[in-house]
Amino acid sequence: MGAQQALLAPSTRSQLALSQPLLAQLNFKAPKHPTSVTPTARPKLPGQECVREFRSPGMAKALVAPLIPHVARGSQLLAWVLWLQAWRVAAPCPGACVCYNEPKVTTSCPQQGLQAVPANIPAASQRVFLHGNRITYVPAASFRACRNLTILWLHSNALARIDAAAFTGLALLEQLDLSDNAQLRAVDPTTFHGLGRLHTLHLDRCGLQELGPGLFRGLAALQYLYLQDNGLQALPDDAFQDLGNLTHLFLHGNRIPSVPERAFRGLHSLDRLLLHQNRVARVHPRAFRDLGRLMTLYLFANNLSALPAEALAPLRALQYLRLNDNPWVCDCRARPLWAWLQQFRGSSSEVPCSLPPRLAGRDLKRLAATDLEGCAVAARPSRPIRDRRACRRGATGATQPLRTQLCGSGLEVQDGLSPQGPRKQSL
């Protein structure tokens, strides 16, 4: 380009130098004969479909003329460059929005009372902020023209429906925030398909009651998944199996009643799992088997009365554990958990007992083995009751209260607690 620039007057060359960053950004290559370049032969630029066309040469001239009051005759290359610059400046911004190019091309329309996604978002946008409006619906391909989009905020709207193809074409999207849309309640399982670079997804406080099968399929780059404060009533098997890079999973504040065996299968990179403030009453012994890198586990404020130590055994990297605010029963069922807590070297909350009454309020971690009711003289681990009809028949003698309690737990009863001569009777 130096040869063409040398042919221009010094003042013209200085003006052209100011446009070099623009040329570099547009990857523009000057033709061999600049005088042959005309506005009608301009290259088709990416995203041009979202930019207002000049409807007449007069419009282009009106925009360019103030920028070049003294353009040398024949300097059509410079005119072309400045025309491109004016064309770029003239790119429309939705009426209720603010658009700017630094640090990234951004269309920002927060808290403007919008009831629909704007139709003329500039295609060059890398960030689109539409939060805090009244948008109720995201139609199919709402952002298809914006191929460079990396961040999209739609939180704090009134979304009740998102079309399954709403995010079609956003292959570069990295952050998607749909939180605080309490009327959403359900998301089509194919909504996030094709978002292979997505690393942060906010679905918290959306009124979700279930996770559809395959909802997170293909999101191999996802690292942060926010699902807290919804109405989730179950954790489906293999719901997160494609999320091998997920490090943070937030599930607190839902209505989850149990943690099944395959709920977290495939989460080999998970670092933080928050399950507190649910209704969890049971954790499968193999529920955490793939979580060898987990460092933080919150299970407080649930309905746990027991937790199998086998479930915690795979958590070799665990450093922070919270189990408080659960109705722990500190009898023989708690003995494996008690033993695991004795060897745990990380930081853990108290595990206050609810039952039996004599241990109520005491920390399970600080009890002695002999404090665990019903296990002081057991010769070997208890086995499941095979004949539950015997529990209904009842029993006689001083051990009746203990027998009744253990029948309810599904464990084999030790009939007779004297260390001199315990007599085992299977019920």
TrEMBL record:
**Keyword match rRNA-binding:** no
- Main location, first listed in the record: membrane
Q: Which SMART domains match?
A: LRR_TYP, LRRCT
Q: How does the record classify its membrane topology?
A: Lipid-anchor; GPI-anchor
- Output the Gene Ontology cellular-component terms: cell projection; external side of plasma membrane; membrane raft; perikaryon
The record's listing under InterPro entries reads: Cys-rich_flank_reg_C (IPR000483), Leu-rich_rpt (IPR001611), Leu-rich_rpt_typical-subtyp (IPR003591), LRR_dom_sf (IPR032675), LRR_TM_domain-containing (IPR050541)
- Recorded superkingdom: Eukaryota
Give a GO biological-process term.
Answer: positive regulation of Rho protein signal transduction
Q: Which PROSITE patterns match?
A: LRR (PS51450)
Which terms are listed as keywords in the entry?
A: Cell membrane, Cell projection, Glycoprotein, Leucine-rich repeat, Lipoprotein, Membrane, Receptor, Repeat, Signal
Q: Where is it localised? A: Cell membrane; Cell projection; Membrane raft; Perikaryon
Coiled coil start-end = none
Q: Which GO terms describe its molecular function?
A: ganglioside GM1 binding; ganglioside GT1b binding
LRRCT domain: from which residue to which, for each copy? 326-376
User: Would the keyword Lipoprotein turn up in this protein's UniProt record?
Assistant: yes
For this chain, the family text in UniProt reads: Belongs to the Nogo receptor family.
Protein name in UniProt? Reticulon-4 receptor
